[in-house]
Amino acid sequence: MFPAISIDSAPFAVLRSRPDADTPARRCARLSDRAAARRNSNPRSGGVSFAPFRASPALMAVRTASIERNTRETQIRVEINLDGTGEARLASGIPFLDHMLDQIARHGLIDLVVDAKGDREIDDHHTVEDIGITLGQAFDRALGDKKGLVRYGHSYVPLDEALSRVVIDLSGRPDLEYFVEFPRARIGEFDVDLFREFFQGFVNHAKVTLHIDNLRGRNAHHIVETVFKAFGRALRMATGRDERLGDVMPSTKGSL
After folding, report:
1. pTM recorded for the entire structure
2. CATH topology of domain 61-238
């Protein structure tokens, strides 16, 4: 059993009743002193121990955007906060689409407002596509110049028998690779073909490369829910701030 010790307020500064004893606590103190010395010798640290990380202006920027898009077919308003908590206020007029948009917000930790009116007396096509377009525009604006971003994101998400993978690159080059097959044409009243239209609209205006693959699944609801959850988590990874990168562009070209 170790002799009684007292601990000073300085990190790992251990005062022992037997100063010559080599104990785990004293070894920890030596390791801490060595780490502090390395920090002090680093010219980037300015010679200050335990200096807090100071984010570059790019990392400190508020990443929000609000977009309104009005056409003869739809009136769409989207507000987005990429550094949110996953709160969503959704009024697309299409309950199942609201359910999927909520997955993006919750799993991407994105605050999202969607208010939409469209010519749904014809069908849901224009409304779903235009929400994707407006969300893409808002996302692109909120990203800013993309300095300091992780840039790439991916996620696998299961739901019972279903499993989907989503991979995204904030490349500035729109490309959608969508491989999702559904066992039926509708989920409730929702036409499953419109999911592709939503993602195509998003990709074109967010200017991202997006790969969506459903790897397995039998239940149509499970399949699409795994897709949207994985999409949210991939967005969360790709839009993360890379502290090591600072305000450098994540591209050898110097631009995205």
Report:
1. 0.77
2. Ribosomal Protein S5; domain 2 (3.30.230)
